[in-house]
Design a protein that fits this description.
The complex is a heterotrimer of chains A (about 270), B (about 300) and C (about 375). Chain A is built from 11 helices and no strands. By secondary structure, chain A is mainly alpha-helical. In chain A, helix 2 crosses helix 11. Chain B has about 300 residues and is mainly α. Helix content of chain B is about 75%, strand content about 0%. In chain B, helix 13 runs antiparallel to helix 14. The longest helix of chain B has about 35 residues. The chains are: A mainly alpha (about 270), B mainly alpha (about 300), C alpha+beta (about 375). The interface between A and B is large, with 87 and 94 residues.
C-alpha cells in the first residue's frame, strides 16, 4: 500500500481547494473594499458598506422575515423529524420503507419542482402567498435533514436504556423526560440549527412562494441588477457567511457532543454540512 | 382492543403488531404532511398539465395538447436538450474533478481526514445564491478574471466567452456541486478493504492496473451516487442559468417559471415540469441499470 | 399447580407458559418454580428461549398462553415498573448522561428521599459491589467490569424480591469472568435475595447456581442441581451440553425389578442396581465422563474394570491432558482426562494403554 502520494496528486488537491475557496474569498475582500466597483485592484479598507446595510430599511424587513420564517421552519421540521425518526428507529410497521422513502424524497427533488407544485396548489385554492406559504415549502425540504440527524441520535440510543428505566420503576412519560429526551437533545439542537440555516439561505422556493414579504435571499436577488448596490451585497453576503458558519459549527459541536455522551465514535462522514 | 376488532384488523394487515400500530401512529404527522404538501400538489401539477388555460380561465377537459407542445416545439426541445446536455457535462466534469481529491483524502488523508472533509465543505456553508453571484463577479466583463488578466498584461480586451453563456453555467455548477460529488465517492473509497489491494499487488498488478481492476470498480457505487446527486437537481436549476446564462445558457427551469408567471400558461409549465421529471427519472434509472454490475456487491 | 402457588418457598412460579411470535414458537409450554433465596440459572444455547422467559418474568414480554406468579400474586399482565423484580441487562444499560451515583440512585428518585438519606443508600449500594467512592465518576470512564457492578448496585438498591441477570458476564474477558462468578455468588449469599441468571455458558451455571433449568427449543429438558445435571443427565442432549460425555452403546441382557444387566460393547458385562423399563435385547446408551476413565500408567495400577485402547490424540492444557482413545479392535472412541500430576508422562500417539473405570462412573442416557 503506497504511503506517499505522488506529487501531482497533492498539487491537484491544493489547486482544487483553491478552486473551491475562490468565490468565497472574494467576500471579505470586497466587503471591506473602498470602491463602488467590484474589481481589482483593491482600494483601501472601509466599513462604509456595512453602514449602508445598517440604514437600508428594506433589508431590515427582509432580515426580519427570513429570521421569523427560519425560526418557525426549524421548529416545524424538527418536530416532524422527531416523530419520524423515533418511529423509524424504534418501531417496525408495514410500509415502513415506502413511507420513510417518501418523506425523504424532497432531498432528491429539484427545488423548483417543489416550488412549482406548491405554487400551483396555492393558486388553485385561491390562497394568497405569504410568509406562511414559504414556511410550508421550507418545512417540506428541511424535514428530511432533521430526520437524518435525529435518526442517528435515536439509533445510537441503546434500547435497553428505556427498559432499564422502566425496570427501575419509571413509567413511559418519566422515561421519556429522564432518559430519552436528554440523550436526544443534542440531536434536536443540531436539527434546529441546520434547518434554520437551510431556511435562511434558501432562495428558489422563497422566490416562488413569497408574497409581498421578501426573505433575505429574495431581497438580494432583487438588488443584483443594480451595480451600485453590489458592494453592499458583498458586505451582506459576508455577514451571512459568517452567520451560517457560526450556526453550522455550533450544530456540529452539538452533534459531536451527542455522540460523545452516548459513547459512540464521531465520524465526519456522517456529518451534515 | 376488543377481539372482533383486532381480528378483522388482522385480516387486512396480517403482519400488524401493537408495536407496528404505535409506529404508524407516530410516523403519521410527517407522513400526512408530505402527502398533503408534496404528493397532492404533484398530482395536481400532473392534472394541470392535462388541462388548458385561456387567460384566467381554466378549461378542465383532458387533453394532451400541452405535452405535444412541450415535446415538439423547437424552443422547448432546445431548452430540454440543452438542460440535459449542460447537466450531463456538469455531472461528468464535477465527478471527474471530484474523484482525485476523494481518492487523495481516502487513501492519504491519514489522521487528518476529517480536517480535509471539513475544509472541503466550509465554502459551501453559504447561500447558493451568493455563490452564484460571486461567480458572476469573477467571470464578468469587469470581473476578477478579466481585471487581473488585463492588469497583468495577458490580454487587452476582456474575455467574453466566460460569461452569459453555457460555459459560465457549467463552471458555476461544477463548483456548486463539488462537495456533493466528493463525499459519496470518498465514502465508497474508504470502504474498500485494503487487503484486496494488497492481494492484487501480491498477485503481480502494478499501481495503475490495481486502480483500474480493483479500486475503480469497487468505488463505482459512490461514483453512481455522486452522478445522480449532481445530475438530477442540476437539470432543474433556475438561479445559475438566469444569472449567468445569458440567452444561450437558459435552461428548462427558467422556461417553467416564465410559463407559470408572465406567460400565464400554468398547464404548459406543468407539462414541461412533468416531462422534465420523467425524462430525468428515465435517464437516471437507465444510468443505474447500466452500472448495476458494479452495484451488486455490498460492502 | 394451585397448591404450589401458595407454597411459601416459591417466589416465582411459571405456569405452563407459551410464547409465539407469528409462526415461531419461542416457548413451548414451560413450567417451573423458583424457591426464595436460591441462585437459579436458565441455561441453554442461543435461541432456546431462556432470554424470552426472563423477559416474561421481568415484565418486558407477556406470555401468549400461561401465567407468571411472583411472590404468590399473578403478575402476568403487570408492567415491569410495578413488579418486585429488577434486571441487570446484558449491555448493562448504564445511562450515559448520568454519573455513577445518579445511575445507582435512579430508581429511588420517585421515593423523594431527603438528600443525605439518598446519598447514604447510594454509597451503601456501591460498597456492596466494591465500588466505594465511585459516585462522582462519569459513566463513559468505566471499564466493562465496573459498568457491570454499577448495574448490579443500581438494581440491588431497589431491594427487589428477585434479581434477574441477562448474560451478565458474556461481555467480560475470561479471567474477569471467572473472578466475577465468585463475586456474584458471594453477593447473592450476602444479600440473601433470589437471583435468576440467564447464560449459555454451562461452566458459569454450574459454579454459581443452586439449581439449573436446561432449555432446548423452548422447553425445559432438565431441572436439577448442578451435580444432578452433571452426574445424571436426563437426555443425550443435556449430557453433551454440560461438559463432555462419552457415549458407549450397550445391550440389555436381563431386566428385573431391582437389577439391570447390561453388556457394554467391548467394556464388559455388569449388573446395575436400578430398575428400569428396558427389555431384554434393548439397545441403550451408556454415558461416562472423561474424568471417570483412568489411564493405568504402570503395571501395578488396576481398576474395577479395565480395557485396552490406543492413544489417538492428546491435548495438553497445562494442568490436564485430554486423550482421545480408541478401544482396541473396535471403532469406539472416547475422551479421557488425566491430571498432570508428578510422575505422569504425557503419552504419545499410537501407544497402547490400559484404561480403567468403575461401576459408579456410568449413567444410563435416555434417548432425546
Amino acid at each position: 500500500m503506497q504511503n506517499k502520494p505522488s506529487r501531482s496528486l497533492l498539487t491537484y488537491a491544493i489547486v482544487y481547494l483553491i478552486f473551491l475557496y475562490a468565490p468565497v474569498m472574494l467576500l471579505p475582500l470586497f466587503a471591506f473594499n473602498n470602491s463602488a466597483i467590484i474589481a481589482l485592484p483593491l482600494s483601501g479598507f472601509t466599513f462604509h458598506w456595512f453602514g449602508l446595510l445598517w440604514q437600508t430599511k428594506a433589508l431590515h424587513e427582509a432580515l426580519y422575515n427570513s429570521l421569523m420564517i427560519a425560526l418557525i421552519t426549524s421548529i416545524g421540521s424538527t418536530t416532524l423529524g422527531i416523530f419520524a425518526a423515533r418511529a423509524a428507529a424504534r418501531y417496525e410497521f408495514p410500509g415502513k420503507r415506502g413511507i420513510m422513502g417518501f418523506i425523504m424524497v424532497p432531498l432528491v427533488l429539484p427545488e423548483i419542482i417543489v416550488g412549482v407544485a406548491l405554487l400551483v396548489v396555492l393558486i388553485q385554492l385561491g390562497m394568497s402567498l405569504s410568509a406562511w406559504t414559504v414556511i410550508i415549502g421550507h418545512v417540506l425540504i428541511c424535514t428530511p435533514f432533521s430526520i437524518a440527524i435525529l435518526q442517528s441520535a435515536f439509533n445510537n440510543m441503546d434500547r435497553s436504556l428505556e427498559e432499564a428505566s422502566m425496570d427501575l420503576g419509571e413509567n413511559r412519560i418519566g422515561t421519556f423526560f429522564r432518559v430519552i429526551l436528554p440523550l436526544v437533545t443534542p440531536g434536536i439542537i443540531s436539527s434546529l440549527l441546520i434547518s434554520f440555516t437551510i431556511s435562511l439561505d434558501e432562495f428558489i422556493i422563497a422566490f416562488f412562494l413569497t408574497g409581498t414579504d421578501a426573505t433575505l435571499p429574495v431581497y438580494i436577488w432583487s438588488q443584483l441588477r443594480f451595480p451600485a448596490r453590489l458592494p453592499a451585497i458583498m458586505a451582506l453576503g459576508f455577514l451571512m457567511v459568517v452567520l451560517s458558519f457560526i450556526l453550522l459549527l455550533t450544530a456540529e459541536y452539538f452533534r459531536r457532543r451527542a455522540n460523545r455522551i452516548t459513547g459512540n465514535s464521531t465520524s465526519s462522514e456522517e456529518s451534515i454540512f | 382492543m376488543s377481539d372482533s376488532k383486532s381480528s378483522s384488523f388482522k385480516r387486512i394487515f396480517p403482519t400488524m403488531t401493537p408495536d407496528g400500530w404505535s409506529g404508524l401512529k407516530l410516523v403519521s404527522p410527517p407522513f400526512v404532511y408530505s402527502l398533503l404538501m408534496l404528493a397532492a400538489p404533484l398530482v395536481l401539477v400532473f392534472l394541470l398539465s392535462l388541462w388548458t388555460q385561456n387567460y384566467l380561465e381554466l378549461d378542465r377537459t383532458f387533453t394532451t395538447a400541452n405535452y405535444k407542445e412541450a415535446l415538439s416545439e423547437k424552443l422547448y426541445q432546445t431548452l430540454m436538450i440543452r438542460s440535459l446536455t449542460i447537466s450531463g457535462i456538469v455531472t461528468a466534469v464535477t465527478v471527474l474533478l471530484a474523484y482525485p481529491i476523494a481518492y487523495y483524502v481516502a487513501f492519504f488523508g491519514g489522521k487528518r481526514k476529517s480536517l480535509w472533509l471539513l475544509l472541503i465543505t466550509i465554502p459551501f456553508w453559504t447561500s447558493y445564491l451568493i455563490r452564484v453571484f460571486l461567480w458572476k463577479v469573477i467571470l464578468g466583463y469587469n470581473g476578477v478574471v478579466n481585471g487581473s488578466l488585463m492588469g497583468l498584461g495577458f490580454i487587452e480586451e476582456p474575455l467574453s466567452f466566460i460569461l452569459y453563456n453555457a460555459n459560465a453555467v457549467v463552471i458555476t455548477l461544477a463548483h456548486a456541486w463539488a462537495p456533493f460529488a466528493i463525499l459519496p465517492i470518498f465514502v465508497s473509497l474508504s470502504r474498500i478493504d485494503h487487503s484486496l489491494l494488497e492481494a492484487a499487488r501480491d498477485l503481480g498488478d502494478g499501481p495503475i492496473r490495481r486502480f483500474f481492476r480493483v479500486t475503480l470498480p469497487l468505488s463505482m457505487p459512490g461514483v453512481v451516487a455522486a452522478s445522480l446527486i449532481v445530475f438530477i437537481p442540476t437539470v432543474g436549476d433556475y438561479v445559475t442559468p438566469k444569472l449567468l446564462g445569458g440567452t444561450d445558457g437558459l435552461m428548462i427551469a427558467n422556461m417553467i417559471q416564465i410559463q407559470l408567471g408572465k406567460a400565464n400558461n400554468a398547464p404548459l409549465g406543468s407539462a414541461l415540469a412533468v416531462s422534465a421529471m420523467i425524462i430525468v427519472a428515465s435517464i437516471s434509472i437507465a444510468f443505474v441499470l447500466i452500472n448495476r454490475k458494479f452495484l451488486k456487491t455490498k460492502t | 399447580m394451585a397448591k404450589s402457588k401458595e407454597d411459601e418457598n416459591s417466589i416465582i412460579v411459571v405456569d405452563n407458559v407459551e410464547k409465539h411470535f407469528g409462526t415461531v414458537t419461542a416457548l413451548d409450554g414451560v413450567s417451573l418454580e423458583i424457591k426464595a433465596g436460591e441462585f437459579f440459572s436458565l441455561l441453554g444455547p442461543s435461541g432456546c428461549g431462556k432470554t424470552t422467559l426472563l423477559r416474561m418474568i421481568s415484565g418486558f414480554d407477556t406470555p401468549s398462553v400461561g401465567n407468571i406468579y411472583i411472590g404468590g400474586t399473578d403478575m402476568t399482565d403487570v408492567p415491569p415498573n410495578e413488579r418486585p423484580t429488577n434486571m441487570v441487562f446484558q449491555s448493562y444499560a448504564i445511562f450515559p448522561h448520568l454519573n455513577v451515583a445518579e445511575n445507582v440512585g435512579y430508581g429511588l428518585k420517585k421515593q423523594k428521599l431527603p438528600k443525605d438519606e439518598l446519598d447514604r443508600r447510594v454509597n451503601e449500594a456501591l460498597a456492596l459491589v466494591d465500588l466505594d467512592g465511585y459516585g462522582p465518576r462519569e459513566s463513559h470512564a468505566l471499564s466493562g467490569g465496573q459498568r457491570q457492578r454499577v448495574a448490579l448496585a443500581r438494581a440491588l438498591i431497589m431491594k427487589p424480591k428477585v434479581l434477574l441477570l441477562d448474560e451478565p458476564l458474556s461481555a467480560l474477558d475470561k479471567k474477569l469472568r471467572e473472578a466475577m462468578q465468585g463475586e456474584l455468588r458471594r453477593l447473592q449469599r450476602n444479600v440473601g435475595i433470589t437471583f435468576v441468571l440467564v447464560t449459555h455458558d454451562q461452566e458459569e451455571a454450574l459454579t454459581m447456581s443452586d439449581r439449573i433449568a436446561v432449555m432446548f427449543n423452548g422447553k425445559i429438558a432438565q431441572l436439577d442441581t448442578p451435580e444432578g445435571l452433571y452426574k445424571r443427565p436426563a437426555t443425550r442432549r443435556v449430557a453433551s451440553f454440560i461438559g463432555v460425555m462419552n457415549f458407549i452403546p450397550a445391550t440389555v441382557r436381563k431386566s428385573t425389578d431391582s437389577t439391570l444387566s447390561i453388556d457394554i460393547q467391548s467394556l464388559g458385562k455388569l449388573d446395575l442396581a436400578t430398575h428400569s423399563r428396558h427389555q431384554v435385547g434393548d439397545k441403550i446408551t451408556i454415558g461416562i465422563r472423561p474424568e471417570m476413565l483412568t489411564i493405568l500408567y504402570r503395571k501395578e495400577e488396576s481398576a474395577e474394570y479395565e480395557f485396552e485402547a490406543i492413544i489417538e490424540g492428546a491435548a495438553y492444557y497445562g494442568d490436564m491432558t485430554y486423550y482421545e482413545i480408541r478401544i482396541i479392535d473396535t471403532d469406539i472412541t472416547a475422551t479421557v482426562s488425566m491430571r498432570n500430576t508428578a510422575g505422569r508422562p504425557i503419552l504419545e500417539i499410537g501407544k497402547k494403554t490400559r484404561v480403567g473405570w468403575g461401576i459408579e462412573s456410568i449413567t444410563i442416557i435416555a434417548d432425546d
